């Protein structure tokens, strides 16, 4: 192999390795979540759980007493979350 072939390959290899392994100069700061952000996420999760519970009950996977108890618990938690959101102005 001649120098005109080897030199570009070596330069390309060094460039690729430097790009891959060079330490990052900027570190992104973590996003600060407010209490309202947390409550919005929690409300979404509770509503998803209620939808899943209703679907599974209709599919016959839950006895009615378990369904009623779990639905009541989820609705009570949703009410607490929405109430706290309203008190925070969300």
Write a brief caption for the model:
76% of the residues lie in helices and 0% in strands.
3D architecture notes:
- The structure is a single chain.
- With 90 residues, the chain is mainly α.
- The chain has a domain at 32-90.
- The chain has three helices and no strands.
- It has helices at residues 3-21, 35-58, 64-88.
- The protein starts with a helix and ends with a helix.
- Helical fraction equals over 70%
The end-to-end span amounts to: 70 Å
- Broad shape: elongated
Largest sheet: number of strands, sense, barrel closure: none
**Count, helices:** 3
DSSP strand content = under 5%
Rg over CA atoms, rounded to whole Å, is 28 Å
Instruction: Tell how many strands the DSSP assignment holds.
Output: 0
Average residue-wise pLDDT: 91
Q: Quickly give the structural class.
A: mainly alpha
Task: Give the helices and strands as they follow along the chain.
Answer: HHH
Instruction: Give the low-pLDDT segments.
Output: none
Question: Any descriptors?
Answer:
mainly alpha; 3 helices
Task: Show the helix and strand layout.
Blueprint: H1 3-21, H2 35-58, H3 64-88
Helix pairs in contact: 2-3
């Amino acid at each position: 192999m001649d120098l005109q072939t080897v030199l570009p390959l070596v330069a390309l290899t060094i460039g690729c390795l430097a790009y891959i392994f060079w330490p990052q100069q900027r570190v992104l700061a973590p996003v600060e979540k407010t209490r309202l952000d947390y409550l919005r996420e929690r409300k979404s999760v509770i509503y998803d759980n209620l939808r899943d519970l209703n679907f599974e009950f209709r599919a016959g996977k839950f006895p009615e007493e378990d369904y009623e108890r779990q639905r009541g618990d989820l609705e009570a938690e949703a009410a607490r979350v929405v109430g706290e959101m309203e008190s925070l102005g969300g």
